[in-house]
Write a structure and sequence with these properties.
Largest sheet: 5 strands, mixed
Bound molecules: zinc ion
Radius of gyration: 25 Å
Strand order of the largest sheet: 3-4-5-7-6
Number of strands: 15
Number of helices: 27
Distance between the termini: 47 Å
Shape: globular
Structural class: alpha/beta
Helix content: 40-55%
Length: about 675
């Protein structure tokens, strides 16, 4: 299943589509085995059309949608055929059914569901409209299709025994979607994107004391909801990625084939996979993986180079160290220059090295590293010679180490100034994320102002290189990078960029006048500089749009006004027919992200809690509400407000996210107190 991402649209010309999904109990399944082959089945009935194609081995693949959307199913259909071909070859097992159907449903609260032989999708996860779908969304469609089809083998052909091993299903599918899409589109550099989208986002959540191990005991059925999170999906995928690096591609693939063939039409536990991989590779997979899947959190390795010696120590990485910090250790693959140990298992180790050398090359190890200041300075003077993933890892780790108090934020900001010639989209994602987080947590007018010239200078070279117009033959990563660079400049109020956005918005007759990749920036800039007339124009576009991505983009803009009356107006729409129920949480989350709107968003949340519970209590996104709120504030006063409100709201499904929101809030208050003066001083000297 894919839960993450976005909303879809109002029912477009939808006659009636009925979906019946049957979740067979595992116990029942075991009794009937092998008569019932999968735990998920779906039947769909309604006014739908389709396009079809065949795989190399003759499986009939059909992509269904409502009649007016059939013309947008071609891309997903093509990906489905190619993925089935790829998996048949990779797993060395034919697709077990004579047909493979897929359907885009106009009203579907999940991203997609891997029912055997009939995968159901949100429209936004399956339909690609060449004129209105942005590049990241098109890529996302490819990845979701690759994910769901991998489940036909890993999940359906072989099924986990109990929810504790949900991660195995989801982590694996979230990893192999990259392998499949990398095979289809090598120019998309999927493994570089993997480190940002899977590994870094997993580490963010896993840095909290209130995280959970990948293998989590499930005691109450409602707890299942709370584990469809970045730990099961993203950390699961990340430790599988680490294992892939540890075993090598061939042994990993052969071990998987052995696992799937041995356990076809049966149930498994995590350990069955380790045994199969061990059988083929002859490496101690169980021992290596046990710490990563059974222990919460992950390590930070402190690296000190002195004379000709390197000393490494490891401890659990906490965003904010709790009173009783854990003393866990992990088998850490060091992956440095020749002579470094293969894995570092205890709390400390040392080895000889003439000069400082970055470890965790290629960043496949699921840990952070903080280097001594002299080593960071040495790396930053030759940063352009580092491969992209190592530039990315060094910067991400130094910023996160600063947030957790292992170094000062000034050290990370100073390192960032060495990235003025950076041209890699994934590295820029890390830069944009960190600048955004500093701005949000410091929540200070002076920081917001002094950061603007800093950002404008940092991005100047790339803004000039990329410009506004797509160039013939430019790389895929440059196409992804353009909106990031223009967006950073729009946020920093770079005069020419703001002027261009406003002029494009004014001249726009239909959304198609603006490239889909830049539309969000143009709309948001118009909102930030606009008035009630701008609001009405955006709302009109929203209400008339039949494209789900477009409506999400517009929701984000409509919640980004400065004026209190317009902020209220946007929040007021959430409970009306204007906003589909499945989109409601996005409106609220976007509104919390607008620093002018966070107080009003909180008031709205408090006064509509009963409505949210009633209307959206079944939706996985509802359980993130406390996190949306907690991460929006950095002041002591709000801490009490938060606790007072949530103290009687805890349920098995909400408990973890209430604690996570509280922990983020506590960290933000502390980090602001510690760093605000230094950040301002740094930015002032750079302005
Ligand atoms: Zn899945």
């Amino acid at each position: 299943m894919i839960e993450r991402l976005s909303p879809t649209v109002r029912n477009v010309a939808l006659a009636a589509i009925f979906v019946l999904t049957a979740w067979f109990l595992w116990s029942v399944r075991s009794v009937l085995n092998p008569l019932i082959l999968a735990y998920l089945l779906a039947f769909v009935y309604g006014d739908i059309g389709y396009e079809e194609a065949k795989t190399k081995s003759g499986t009939l693949v059909r992509a269904y949608a409502t009649p007016d959307n059939v013309k947008f199913t071609g891309f997903a259909l093509d990906i489905a055929v190619k993925c089935l071909d790829f998996y048949e070859d990779y797993f060395d097992i034919p697709f077990p059914l004579p047909k493979s159907d897929m359907i885009a449903l106009p009203d579907f609260s999940n991203g997609a569901m891997e029912n055997w032989g009939l995968v159901t999708y949100r429209e936004q996860c399956m339909l690609v409209d060449p004129k209105n779908t942005s590049l990241p969304t098109k890529q996302y469609v490819a990845m979701v299709v690759a994910h769901e089809l991998a489940h036909q083998w890993f999940g359906n052909l072989v099924t986990m025994r109990w929810w504790t091993d949900l991660w195995l299903n989801e982590g694996f599918a979230s990893w192999i979607e990259y392998l499949a899409i990398d095979h289809l589109f090598p120019e998309w550099e999927m493994w570089t994107q993997f480190i940002v989208d899977e590994q870094q986002s997993a580490m963010k959540l896993d840095a909290l004391d209130n995280t959970h191990p990948i293998e989590v005991p499930i005691n109450h059925p409602d707890e299942i909801r709370s584990i469809f999170d970045a730990i099961s999906y993203n950390k699961g995928a990340s430790v599988i990625h680490m294992l892939w690096g540890y075993l090598g591609a061939a042994d990993f693939r052969d071990g998987l084939r052995h696992y799937l063939k041995t356990h076809a039409y049966k149930n498994t536990d995590t350990v069955d996979l380790w045994e199969a991989l061990e059988h083929v590779s002859k490496k101690p997979v169980k021992k290596f993986m046990h710490a990563w899947t059974s222990q919460p959190g992950f390590p930070i390795v402190s690296y000190t180079h002195a004379g000709t010696e390197v000393e490494l120590t490891q401890e659990r990485f906490y965003l904010q160290k709790p009173n009783s910090a854990s003393t866990l250790a992990w088998p850490v693959p060091v992956l440095g220059q020749d002579g470094t140990p293969e894995t570092f298992t205890g709390h400390e180790t040392s080895y000889r090295s003439a000069s400082p050398d970055k470890i965790n090359k290629g960043e496949s190890g699921f840990y952070r590293t903080i280097y001594d200041p002299a080593s960071i300075a040495a790396f930053s003077s030759i940063i352009v010679n580092f491969p992209a993933l190592d530039r990315l890892g060094l910067l991400a780790d130094t910023f996160e180490a600063a947030k957790a108090g292992y170094t000062d934020l000034k050290v990370a900001l100073q390192l960032l100034t060495a990235y003025q010639s950076e041209d890699n989209s994934a590295v820029w994602d890390i830069i944009a994320m960190n600048l955004g987080e500093i701005r949000r947590v410091m929540d200070d007018a002076d920081v917001r102002e002094t950061m603007k010239p800093f950002i404008i200078r940092l991005t100047a070279k790339e803004l000039e290189r990329l410009g506004w117009e797509e160039k013939e033959g430019e790389s895929y990563f440059d196409r992804l990078l353009r909106p990031t660079i223009i967006g950073l400049n729009a946020g920093a109020e770079e005069q020419l960029v703001v002027k261009e956005c406003l002029s494009r918005f004014d001249k726009m007759k239909t959304p198609e006048d603006i490239p889909a990749d830049l539309r969000g920036i143009v709309y948001s800039t118009a909102a930030q500089n606009g008035d009630s007339k701008t609001f009405d124009k955006l709302l009109d576009l929203h209400n008339n749009s039949t494209n789900s991505e477009e409506r999400t983009t517009l929701a984000s803009s409509l919640t980004h006004f400065k004026q209190p009356a317009l902020i209220k107006k946007a929040l007021g729409l959430i409970t009306t027919d204007t906003v589909r129920r499945q989109d409601a949480m996005y409106w609220l989350a976007y509104s919390f992200m607008n620093h002018h709107a966070k107080e009003a968003s909180w008031e709205w949340l408090v006064s509509h809690w009963g409505w949210l519970e009633k209307e959206l209590g079944h939706d996985l996104s509802f359980y993130r509400t406390p996190i949306y709120a907690g991460r929006s504030f950095s002041d002591e006063k709000f801490r009490k407000t938060y606790h007072d409100f949530f103290k009687d709201k805890s349920t098995p499904a909400l408990e973890r996210s209430i604690k996570q929101g509280a922990e983020m809030l506590a960290w933000q208050i502390a980090w602001k107190q510690k760093e605000l003066a230094q950040v301002l001083q740094f930015l002032n000297t750079k302005s």
